[in-house]
């Protein structure tokens, strides 16, 4: 299957760089494409950068989730990126799903990008300071490594291309679904001309469709403009997979909720999250990172919290709560931040249980169903470590959930497979030096 996909990607010259449901019922599980083997023609061109054990962890969330409601316990979130190193703050909660570059387990990160994404999403708090916890610090992670700027692939025609393709991204999504992920975070992107998007991304869109059928929520970075990559900011480009209707696309804002200048705007953007000058999750101390790559895991982590607290909701209904409770722009929905800036606290506590995104028009709520009541948190557990047990309302709640609408299409048309991707051209600054990271498909 991987060979077929790779051939299709080469054919189009595309390489990846950088309603009426009452209970959440998963569709048929996607067929597992199996453990990936090493990529043909792979060659390392740059030494790996060791991932440091320290760092500040995650930046404080925009609105911290109330203690005791949810921590992501029981959820498996797939991180499809440059790999995730099992640092102490992730110890015991990250497992390998596969490596589409070298054929390993996915727990090697030469770039540091995927590890940073994982810490923002699910890193534990610093044992000394108590700070730096990710959005969902009890979530389990599944790492699938499918790109790296430290490698290239020598094609059969002698051409050199970045490691990581639309074909391997599609396979990674399929594998994440088959291995039981409830949420998938893709902090990678490739931009293709709209007129060829359907053909170029057909394999990827098929994988996304399979994830939706299995009731998996796919969160993707909207992408960063980068003149040296595929997302140049030129008109007529479509970021994949962010521009698919089935994907929750995330833009970046600064500390004042102002849209980031690098964040790719478009009708496909659903929501935004902090992604400007964040403390580098894995360090070194004093360094910062920026990019939609780092905004996406804030939303994916929020989704994990919601899937724990409201297990009766479908992935689509979880997306609806995120959109309906976002801090809305003064002028209403726009193409830079979508419905607004994600608000984890509001998403976990807003009533009614079923919410329709505001940008669709009409009332925000579709059913007056009370929220589940959180069990009291044991006083001996610190807030960062407490697992919010939720009392499910059972059959009565199921019968009450009736008129639920699907998340709307953002626009007409759906893009397609293989093109160079990179990690959104995310920017890191260390000691005043501005560096462009291209780990994984560009966002």
Q: Numbering strands along the chain, what is their spatial order in the largest sheet? A: 3-4-2-7-9-11-12
Q: Using only CA atoms, what is the Rg? A: 20 Å
Please describe the biggest sheet, giving its number of strands, its sense, and whether it closes into a barrel: 7 strands, parallel
Please give the count of helices: 9
Question: What is the C-level CATH assignment?
Answer: Alpha Beta
Span between N and C termini? 26 Å
Number of domains: 1
Number of strands: 18
Overall shape: globular
Structural class: alpha/beta
Q: Helical residue percent?
A: 10-25%
Spans with pLDDT under 50 lasting ≥5 residues? Answer: 1-26, 358-368, 375-420, 428-443
Essential attributes:
7-stranded parallel sheet; 18% strand; Rossmann fold; alpha/beta; 443 residues; disordered C terminus; 4-stranded antiparallel sheet; disordered N terminus; 9 helices
Describe the structure.
21% of the residues lie in helices and 18% in strands. The chain is an alpha/beta fold. It has one domain (2-436): Rossmann fold (3-Layer(aba) Sandwich). The model is unreliable at 1-26, 358-368, 375-420 and 428-443 (pLDDT under 50). Residues 58-67 have a biased composition (Pro residues). Residues 1-31 form the signal peptide. Belongs to the peptidase S8 family.
